[in-house]
Specification:
mainly alpha, Arp2/3 complex 21 kDa subunit ARPC3, two-stranded antiparallel ribbon, 9 helices
Length: 190
Amino acid sequence: MFHPHIRETIRMFTASTTGIRPTLASVLWPAAAGSPALRSLALAVGGTVLLWLSAKIQVPLLPVPITMQTLAVLALGVAYGPRLGAATMALYLAEAAVGLPVLAGGWSEGGGIRHLYGPTAGYLAGFVAAAAVSGRLAERGRDRTIWRAGAAMVTGNLIICVLGLAWLTYLIGLAGAVTYGLLPFLAGDA
């Protein structure tokens, strides 16, 4: 009835939406190899180190700098899955809240709870949601090709942008949020 390529596409789509697939992290480091809690902790801490380093690669703009964090958030979400991805982002935000210098800024700039309600707060909250959604899409097989992985990451990126813009709009109004919190990021996001 359908062309063979269409049948194969339908089979791949239905297979990827009916069950949970292993994430990259679970393939490279199966949970059965050792303590699952220790594995999760090691992956989460490693992920926060990646986020910390990606925050330091930046173009300093105000009120929101351009960093490599979004790429790291989305890659970790896809690689870790929804629970470990979101937990890694939450650990990263906890590290920032207690004063570790993990956020964008100079290497010696401190963290602190103030960053979690400043201009970048919406984007930071978006990290948790984006990692969870991108990870869920990966578990559903949406990361098995470059195009599907790209679509999962675009979805996560939209979540970060929406939450970031919503908070920034609350702080400085819609026009300012679009001017300073969206337009400078479009080329990099693409």
